[in-house]
Design brief:
Keywords: Branched-chain amino acid catabolism, NAD, Oxidoreductase. GO terms for molecular function: 3-hydroxyisobutyrate dehydrogenase activity; NAD binding; NADP binding. Its EC number is 1.1.1.31. By secondary structure, the chain is of the alpha/beta class. The protein has 2 domains: 159 residues, 3-Layer(aba) Sandwich (Rossmann fold), CATH 3.40.50.720; 123 residues, N-(1-d-carboxylethyl)-l-norvaline Dehydrogenase, domain 2, CATH 1.10.1040. Helices cover 49% and strands 14% of the residues. The chain has a 6-stranded parallel sheet with strand order 3-2-1-4-5-6, sandwiched between helices. A 3-stranded mixed sheet has the order 7-8-9. Helix 11 runs antiparallel to helix 12. The termini are far apart. The model has no long low-confidence stretch (mean pLDDT 97). The protein binds nicotinamide-adenine-dinucleotide (NAD). Nicotinamide-adenine-dinucleotide binds next to helix 4 and helix 11.
Amino acid sequence: MKIAFIGLGNMGGGMAANLVKAGHEVRAFDLADAALTAAREKGCATFAAASEACKGVDAVVSMLPNGGIVKAVYADSVFGHAPAGAVLIDCSTIDVATAREVAALAETEGYAMVDAPVSGGIAAADAGTLTFMVGGSANAFRRAEEVLACMGKAVIHAGDAGNGQAAKICNNMLLGIHMIGTAEAFAMAQKLGLDPQTFFDISSVSSGQCWSMTSYCPVPGVGPKTPADNDYQGGFATALMLKDLKLAMEAAATAGMAPRIGAKAAELYEAFDAAGNGTRDFSAIITDY
Ligand code: NAD
């Protein structure tokens, strides 16, 4: 297939490289020269404009910072430039309302489009082991699945347009909540005189067990190797967790829902980010106790 790829940053760079490895012809565009140079080294053809990259393609994939940028890129450079038969796949994490708006515009323009945000960070993007949560019609999903399967280990249909973003922010709200809970439990156990390893051995096989404990333990030297073992470098940045929690709060407001613990998690990550921890892994919130 000929695939346009727009936004080759930390995530998109590795994803585009996996499409090349799967035998596709990748036509890349990014505003940053460094991203384009890296994309060329990975076997992508690069273009001076997104509209050029979209010429004659079977699919367009985007991995961009936010909803405003996604909307502008599709309106200005994809619609009317990609052939009418192309399937459009936005993998960025953006707000549900914009995802639905862009998908509706795409439909008006005659394109099949899905929102397909990912679970998994830069390492999973490089390794081709992302999980995609996909919103869109059954037909658009089927067509997108073939492309997404080259970049991930799971591609799950979440329902109509915007439902991929809804799944992503609900999942990440839960992740933020149980990371804070896990950090708080370890901090309290230690203050009560329990050794962290002993608490892990007990709680990881008891009812407090959760992913933040057994797969991503915030305590250095406990559980599998995680960013905590690397001074909280790499992994999933606090600023990105805060972005997702803000998107979750926005979506909740539009749905007439008032998450109580989710709002508290957003507040705690906002303070942690403001204190200069934006680039540290989100599990570093344990150092706040
Ligand atoms: P990034 O900042 O590294 O990459 C974004 C890229 O988009 C940059 O190279 C930038 O130059 C490019 N860009 C911005 N505006 C553009 C435009 N108008 N046209 C073309 N290119 C443009 O960000 P990232 O970490 O790769 O994240 C991308 C998306 O993936 C975000 O929505 C993020 O929330 C989501 N995400 C990131 C992670 C992660 O761990 N980094 C995990 C899951 C999801």
